Amino acid sequence: VFSSKCSEDILDKNWQRLQSQLEDIPETEKQEHTVQIALLQHKEQKLELLLAAKGFEYCLVVLGEAQANIIVAEELLEKQYEKIYDVVFRNSGYPSEQIVLIPLATN
Strand order in 99-104's β-sheet? Predict the structure, then answer.
């Protein structure tokens, strides 16, 4: 997994932002949105674990409603693009045009 501290920080910030946005909407809608976010977080963790199991420990998965962003160390992405893409495509439920692999420079 890319960085558990980095992932936790992103999740915490997203969760805080979600809670502030949900303050003014009805309780049933709050529950729906909370469940959707929890499901996306579960999928992110699942994909990160699957990628790590395939030897891609330095990946961060960020899922949204319309796009799956996979941040991968640049040297891994150059060598293993198709393998990484295949794992994400088969396990994410996103169509191919909504999967974006993003290289992370590791200088």
Answer: 59-63, 68-73, 99-104
